[in-house]
Design goal:
The structure is a single chain. The protein contains nine helices and seven strands; from the N terminus they run E-H-E-H-E-H-E-H-E-H-E-H-H-E-H-H. The protein is of the alpha/beta class. The chain has a seven-stranded mixed beta sheet with strand order 3-2-1-4-6-5-7, sandwiched between helices. It is globular.
């Protein structure tokens, strides 16, 4: 019997896009459960997600991406049937209908060809930033493990429950993807990047977007320093 998959979707103020994302995730082969973690939204994200067919876990305040992933994974564990442990598929809330392409991430895990897959978007949205955070994460992963990541910050990932548990506690906030990759590679888990036809909303260039990037930079730097003190010079560039 093929092991089932649960999609976990951290979401904050995504009422406009969460519905189509949940519907696409529910239609994925192998997925029998979608859990949306409403991470302190001030809009109707949770209500829309539930109406679309998701189980919803709510944080009363925003706790960040890593905490939302942990909460979602714990909810899945509690919903697992006796003797069945679901694989975990993490998706961003703003993927909309393009979440249907996540089937390519699931297949290698179900076939026991990878312990974690990472999406590489075939069509890359032009971002408002300058790639500083991506470069920091990519170089940090390479120096720590030798792995050459194409899109190290991509949050669309499928992994076995064993791999997820081996990576806990997750790196804080936006450092979670960088930490996941390093921790699993160092522990001998198989990590595979997979090209997918997905797209999400691009980050803009306004003040809120720049503050978002600053938080990303801080969290990635912290994740790297916690795993490899010798990377201190890299994070100071």
């Amino acid at each position: 019997m093929t092991q089932p998959v649960a999609a976990v979707i951290p979401a904050k103020d995504e009422a406009e896009r969460i519905g189509p994302t949940v519907e696409a995730a529910l239609a994925l082969p192998g997925v029998d459960l979608v859990v949306v973690v409403d991470d302190g939204s001030t809009d109707q994200t949770g209500r829309v997600a539930r109406a679309a067919g998701a189980r919803v876990v709510r944080h009363s305040r925003n706790r960040g991406k890593a905490a939302a992933m942990e909460s979602g994974a714990e909810a899945v564990r509690l919903l697992d049937d006796a003797g069945t442990t679901r694989h975990l598929l993490f998706l961003d809330a703003d993927l909309g209908a393009t979440a249907a392409a996540a089937s390519a991430l699931i297949k290698p895990v179900l076939a026991d060809e990878a312990d974690m897959t990472i999406a590489v978007f075939a069509t890359r949205v032009k971002l408002g930033g300058h790639g500083m955070v991506v470069k920091l994460s990519r170089e940090g992963i390479r120096r720590a493990t030798g792995f050459e990541a194409v899109q190290p910050l991509n949050g669309q990932r499928c992994l076995t429950r064993a791999a997820f548990e081996a990576a806990r506690p997750l790196a804080h906030g936006f450092g979670v993807e960088t930490g996941l990759t390093i921790d699993l590679l160092r522990k001998g888990f198989r990590v595979l990047e997979v090209e997918v036809d997905m797209a999400h909303r691009a980050t803009g260039t306004d003040l809120a977007a720049q503050l978002h990037r600053a938080r990303q930079l801080r969290d990635v730097a912290r994740a790297l320093l916690a795993r490899e003190p010798s990377l201190r010079d890299l994070t100071r560039r």
